[in-house]
Amino acid sequence: MNRPLPRPSALIPYVWLGLFFAFPFLLVLRLSLSDVALAIPPYSPQIDWEKGIDGIREFLGGLDFEMYDRMRGDHLYVNAYLTSLLFAAQGTIMALLVGYPMAYAMARCRPGTRNLLLMLVILPFWTSFLIRVYAWVGILKPEGLLNAALGVIGLPPIDLLYTPASVQIGLVYSYLPFMVLPLYAVLEKMDHTLLEAASDLGAPPWRSFWQVTFPISLPGVVAGCLLCFIPMVGEFVIPDLLGGPGSLMIGRSIWTEFFSNRDWPFASAVAIALLVTLIVPILLYQRQQARALEAGR
Amino acid sequence: MKAPASPRGAQKTAGRRTNIGAVRSTFAPWNDPSAVPLVRFENVSKRFDDHVAVRDLSLDIYPGEFFALLGPSGCGKTTLMRMLAGFETPDTGRITLGGEDLAGVPPHERPVNMMFQSYALFPHLTVEQNIAFGLKQQGGLPKGEIAARVAEMLALVKLEPFARRKPDQLSGGQKQRVALARAVARKPKMLLLDEPLGALDKKLREETQFELMDLQVELGVTFLIVTHDQEEAMVMADRIAVMREGQIAQIGRPEEVYEAPASRYVAEFLGDVNLFDATVAASDHPLARLSAPEAAGGFEVMDDDCPPAGTAVTLAVRPEKMRISLDAPAADAANVMAGEIWDIGYTGDWTNYIVELPGERLIRVARANASRIVERPIGWDDKVWVTFDPDAGVVLTQ
Q1: Could you tell me the domains of chain B?
Q2: Touching check for B168 and chain A: CB below 8 Å?
Q3: Which of B105, B129, B133 to mutate to probe the A interface, most A CBs <10 Å?
Q4: Which one of B106, B120, B186 has the shortest CB-CB distance to A191?
Q5: Digit-coded pLDDT (tens) for B139-191
Q6: Domain count for chain A
């Protein structure tokens, strides 16, 4: 039997990935192996195309891992990495704790209400991300909305802005839809008679949840966590706007290196290191997606 | 077991006539006044928004019975079962199980188990784990005992080789068996089966019917089955409750509800039937004489409690209890109808003749193909005479 030729449309994803992922990645990788130079663009070596093959050889000879050595030796960056991973992990867990009941309740609503709630979850995307995060400054600042509300009910004010807690709030707020949507997708699909069966077989509601609902929703939990964790690690705007000096995250360091210090090679090296760190969860996500696809057949 | 001595008044003729149907059964606790029912529905009603699902219904089910709730969709049979399982609460009335009022008892504390129409197998658990699920909920059952019970259940439904499979790797019939094993693993006082064979193909359905009956005898558990398939109910059940719009239209052994239907509805719902609008001409005990336009000589039916002369009634005669002939019977005999063959349906074991009587009235006559060779086969447009015996018909007043 002849295998049919792949249809041209099957190539689209590859062209897409090549164009928008592989090519920029190679540029950044090359940058990370270069040195800083007082030039435009601010790095060397450059390929001298006029010299032909020799030019490329010269260029390749000029590349080295100096930036990576420097990064390893600098506590600031190691700490920023660890902080980022920690913040992202905490933020993901909190988003899960907030998002799961939300998705669960949505899935149990009547279909009409469900669509409305789904719209409301997506609604914040209609406003600029930056503005939404900035709005939190107004809420969290010492004389902001939160403390005003606390004052009304007679509680002492709390100083949250520019603390790690405010970064966490920002992270959970911004990435909650990415947690809720995949969770909602699995919970909405779940057959309600399974819960009746569990209850019929003697499981009280709480145990039905842990033994039936939660295990069945695990693909959604994994998808939601990875969709939150991966971008949270590299998050830049939220720690920059809401974080204080204690919450230096790696995304912010990259920004500082690129734009303040004009150290493009070093910023690239940091970015590459971030990517390598994230490859593990990304692979996990892919494997889980593949398995979900297989189970769905 | 006691022989049916004093029939309950619910069915019109069923109790009074003996020897109804082709089955002799000695199991009849419902005729024993000292028998204690396992489940009692007492004046139970349930309404969903503006739809009344169950209307002031009372019903007793006895231990060891295989009881069928039969009716078209929307007749309330599933609601009745779900109220027993605890998934719905009755608006009014009381349900007791073994004498204990079930009101306020959540589903997970009721000693009944249900086999769901969709099977509702847990997709994330293996066959083994599905069966063990209910056992693990009973706190304090040692692991060894659970494993032994699971193995026993797997053997019961002959699924040992599939113990480690997930539900989506099983065929429809296998899933059905897992659902069954899971439901009986906890040794419930009562097993509820919601359209248990609905998703199986015909051949498998017939096999499974007998397996379910054997299983019921083997386990000694009371079975309550909900079905819209009359054959399923007739084959398996000890008693059938035919339901209509939230109420019980008739309750009785399969032979009783088939051979002595209490109303036109029951007669038409179970099997095929020819209904004739007639008027009582004379009540000549034990014969009732009826006049109807279809029969020139009138109808003569055995009936113990025929209403007085002049009452409008319906005569119900099953197609297989009618005879069809190419020869004219004696003139002005009763129960004779002359007509023409309109259509013939040959199914192998039976031949169904659709006969057109004068006035474009169609009736159905069924003949068992008892012999391979027929001397004078009946063909389309043949002039035929249809007759039946006085004990073939049932007089219905509603």
Answers
A1: 29-111+188-268 (3.40.50.300), 272-396 (2.40.50.140)
A2: yes
A3: B133
A4: B120
A5: 778 999 999 999 999 998 889 999 999 999 999 899 999 999 999 999 999 99
A6: 1
